[in-house]
Amino acid sequence: MNTVRIAIIDDDADERKTLQASFERLAQESGSAIVIIEFAGTDDFLDGYDRSFDLICMDIDMPGTDGMSAAQRLRQMDADVPLVFVTNMAQMAIHGYAVHALDFILKPINYYSFSIKMRGILALIGNRRRKSLVFPTTDGFLRISSDNLYYVEVRGHHLSFHTTQGVIRQRDSLRNWEAKLEGLPFERCNNSYLVNLKQVTAVAKDSVQVGCDWLPISRTKKKPFMNALTEYMGGTSV
């Protein structure tokens, strides 16, 4: 399970405590792993910003550099990090599109609405994750993104990695690669195939299309596979 690093920026210590408690409750309920880093002001946050955060939760009405101005500076340093405004200034939060904010949460925090929004956001963060995979070749190595891996196939003691750049073969175990890809959206559709859910294009009865290939879904793996696929696509488990 990958740990989600969350920055909370708010000048009110009680508000930071309330938001942290909400995240801790959500983590306990969902089985997620989170680390919260608190900042009492935007300048401290921005001056030490190191692109290590998976999510930023920021108030708008703060002394010094306000949240909206801080978000504009943040986007100059990091155009992609998910940003959520947690504020009582709904009239300002609706302008968050200008800094590509994912959403806003109104104070005082209602845990029910908070949990619904944050479950979706944490799922989005997990879906965006990728790893760099390195494969040895006869004359060097090949590096590809996990996004470009369609699926892994096992035959005996050998694996075939079906990628956008062709098929790579090496001696290894599928269990070993499940561990290497932990935290990414990969799921077994049967005992022989580990599928990248990002690359699934269709499901028909007991088969799943991954890239140009149709792979069988076994009876024992169907429910966990379909649950993982549904969760990845943003729905609820079936």
TrEMBL record:
Pfam families per record: LytTR, Response_reg
Keyword Lipid biosynthesis in record: no
Protein name in UniProt: LytTr DNA-binding domain protein
4-aspartylphosphate: residues bearing it: 59
InterPro entries in the record: CheY-like_superfamily, LytR-like, LytTR_DNA-bd_dom, Sig_transdc_resp-reg_receiver
Record keywords: Phosphoprotein
Domain Response regulatory: 5-122
Residue ranges of domain HTH LytTR-type in the record: 133-200
Gene3D superfamilies the record matches: 3.40.50.2300, LytTr DNA-binding domain (2.40.50.1020)
Superkingdom field: Bacteria
